[in-house]
Every structure is written in C-alpha cells, then in structure tokens.
Design a protein that fits this description.
Elements: H1 15-33, H2 46-50, H3 53-59, H4 64-84, H5 88-113, H6 127-152, H7 157-181
Region (Disordered): 1-29
Organism: Dendrobium chrysotoxum
Protein name: Reticulon-like protein
Length: 182
Amino acid sequence: MEGSGQDHSVGDLSSDTRKDRAADQYSSSTMVGGGGYRLFDRQLSIHQVIGGGKVADIILWKCWGISIVVIVVATVAWLMLERSGLSFLTISSDVLLILIILRFIWANSAGILNTSLRPLPELVLSEEMVNNAAASFRAKVNNILLVAHDIAHGKDFRSFFQACDNHCLFEMHGLIMLTYCA
C-alpha cells in the first residue's frame, strides 16, 4: 500500500473513492439514456417502453382526465357484462349489429338530407398477407404435432409430465368451479 495510491482492494476503499465511483456510474448511466436517473440502468424510459404517444400518456396518468374516463368506461362495461349475464362475444356482436344498422340508416337518409357520406375504407386482404398467415399457422401446428409425436413415442418425458400436470390442474380447477359456483 505504500507507494501505490491506486491499488486498493474493495474493502480498503475510502468513502471519498466510493462516492467518486458512484458519481461516475451515475453520470455514465444518465449520459447513455439521457434525461435523468434510470433504475437498473435501463436504456429507455417507461414511456418509451410502453410505446410513447397518447396511449402511454393515458396509461402513465399524464392525461389524468382521460385516464379517469377510461377507468370509468371500463368499470361500467364490466358491470354491464356482470349484471346482464351475457358473454362478451354476445354483447360485442350486438353492438356491431347496431352500428351496422345505424350506418345503413345514415346511408339511406343521406340522399334525403342532402349530405355526403364519408367513404368507408376498402377492406381487402392481400394474397400475400393470407399466405404469410397460413404459413405461420402451418409452422406452429407442425411444431405442436412434432411435440405431440415425441410425447406419444416416449421421447420427451418432461413434456409428457407437463401435459399430465396441466391436465390434472385444469380438471381440479373445473371440479372446484363446478362445486362452488353451481
């Protein structure tokens, strides 16, 4: 230790040296991401991770008025689903049917009211998009069938036991729901 001012072990560091290192680490982490301290040395802010823009502002309560409206609307929708006893699919299909009826009535009354309709976008799936979706789906199904084949031939014991465990858990969950919810 005599002559070497820089050779310090971790236990021998003075508090000033530790503070200097902490300040250097802090400044280097803020220089990389810019804009303040980032927990766990993240490169992006939470706002950027969520996607930025208006939706991130609403999720992070930067537009608190809109955030409150979103929560109230979601709560009312949930209460309506709970009280009506209908499924989400039934209610959403009813809402879409009502919207189609309103659009039809508006289109037919536009001639009488001398107003012009806003054009609807053309809803067309390209052949390339359908082929890509089919190829992706085919690859996933083939992968599932390959795993099922390995399980059936006794080659993959871990997946076999995971499938058995999941089956038993789902069965117990169903029995509990049947017993206590009926």
